[in-house]
Amino acid sequence: NFQKRRFALRIIECLFNTVTAKKIAILGFAFKKNTGDTRESPAILVCKYLLEEGAKLCIYDPKVPKQQIYTDLRSAERPDDMQLIEVTDSPYKATEGAHAIVFCTEWDEFTKLDFKQMYDKMLKPAFVFDGRK
User: Fold this and answer.
1) What is the mean predicted confidence (pLDDT) over 41-59?
2) What integer pLDDT is reported at residue 133 of this predicted model?
3) CATH number at residue 79
4) pLDDT digits (tens, 9 = 90+) for 63-112
5) Helix-, strand-, coil-residue percentages of the chain, each rounded to 5
6) Which of 39, 45, 77, 107 has the fewest CB atoms within 10 Å, i.e. the most exposed one?
7) How many other C-beta atoms lie within 10 A of the C-beta of residue 115?
């Protein structure tokens, strides 16, 4: 948990010490590639930490069902956080208008993304964070 918290704090620090109302694209939500299993996924805690700070998350994962992502992020203590979460079916939609991209799962398809196309549609300055290792 310490590493996940530290990673989230690094994202916040790089985004000028606040993520409130900033859109962050989360690419990958499963605990590892080639599965839809989210048990023990680092993405869950990273997302929860960012939500605590008021970030708007747009999440893409090729195998995890949308409802599973919402279930994993639902919190009895913070029910309003659900309004800050969008789950999309495209990594390009996830990054459109985003301040940052956060890679949380090492999907092979992410190596084939058109990063220039993504960058062109992001808000500037745009940031990329790799939390896969």
Assistant:
1) 97
2) 62
3) 3.40.50.720
4) 999 999 999 999 878 888 999 999 999 999 999 999 999 999 999 999 99
5) 40, 15, 45
6) 77
7) 11
> In 10 A of CB 40, how many CB atoms?
9
What is the span of the domain harbouring residue 10?
A: 2-130
Query: How many domains are there within the chain?
Result: 1
Strands (E), 29-97: 56-60, 85-87
Report d(CA 114, CA 92) in Å as an integer.
9
Contact 54, 20 (CB under 8 A): yes
Q: Is 93 in contact with 65 (CB distance < 8 Å)? A: no
**Pairing, β 56-60 against β 23-27:** parallel
Strands (E), the chain: 23-27, 56-60, 85-87, 100-103, 127-130
